[in-house]
Amino acid sequence: MKILHLLSTVDPRAGGPTEGVLQSGLSMRAMGHEIEVVSLDAPDAPYLKAFSLRLHALGPSRGFYGLCSRLVPWLTEHAPRFDAVIVNGLWQYHSFGAWKALRGSNVPYYVFPHGMLDPWFKRTYPLKHLKKCLYWPWAEYRVLRDAKRVLFTTQEERLLARESFRLYRANEEVVSFGTRQPPADSTTLRHAFLSKFPQLAGKRSILFLGRIHEKKGCDLLLKAFAAVRDIDPRAHLVMAGPDDGEWAAQLRSLTKELGIGDRTTWTGMLTGDLKWGAFRTSDVFALPSHQENFGIAVAEALGSKLPVLISDKVNIWREVKEDGAGIVASDTIDGTIDALSAWLRMDANAVAAMREQALATFTQRFDVDAMSKDLVRVLRETSSRRDGGLTRGLVSEAAG
Prior knowledge:
There is one protein chain. By secondary structure, this protein is an alpha/beta fold. It has 2 domains: 2-179 and 369-397, 3-Layer(aba) Sandwich (Rossmann fold), CATH 3.40.50.2000; 187-366, Glycogen Phosphorylase B (Rossmann fold, 3-Layer(aba) Sandwich), CATH 3.40.50. It has 16 helices and 14 strands. Helix 9 (218-228) packs parallel to helix 10 and helix 9 (218-228) packs across helix 14. It is globular.
């Protein structure tokens, strides 16, 4: 198949959607499919060179919304070359532009919301949600309504998506999601990481890896760690991710107030060997998030034989709990304290068993090849006829 992905950006700092497109694209390309990507990035953006799929950067776009005058004409001309177009993410111009260019055409398009319909945003940012309510009926509602399928990565995400907006209609389908198998555990990876952060040698590192963002529960993790640090003097918190924003500055000040400045390491964003070295040298992965659609980093941790301490707002928490691949708690300070203290007090045999189960859970549930095969199945089943005669899938109307 020939498949075109749309992204607002391929900047790796954007997190899950970019990484998901890259890893699934590489996997599908290895299976013999042709994959191309359109983004709204400026053609001279420095991170484009590292992107491994064929890329059409149509920017620069304008403003936070990413308005890009080249998108619709480009899609009108080039989309007929593809069997399917996949829109990744909402609330920026690439999704609305896809609808403008492809509605009523013979080219089917699909939408991965990537958690962007979660009602957590509605509760946490009511003023932003009000703006979205004004925008919703004439833009994103139509984007979802006219998509061949709206693709959710978990049943939890699908159900939550119905709660955010009163007007909602979508041909829903849940598909597998995952990422590539992490590099094999190696002395090289460990050495690369510890050479840069020698203070972590011999520590029981509790690793957070992701965007330093309010929704990730970073403040909960810091406060909970301050409460449990005396359980094991070797315990050390590693905060890995882009940390140049205002929220990160506040968190750094919080570590000093909590008296854990000397037991917290801020690494900045990690990529390549440093990223995998962080997984391989850490004791456990922690993500007490308030909202997490899937959590690519959670899957990467599991694939690195690293048990995970996650909240029940990470949408794969049921799978983790059912398999015993980690500890699940509420997205509160008390819940995070319970998870951290349970891990730090766990005996060596239980720790070893959970490490083995972490890898088994990744292999069985979250490997990217399984994701690619499931996505190809959906595309073939639904895009094989473009005459409108295909039986429509699940259509849901829900009141938020």
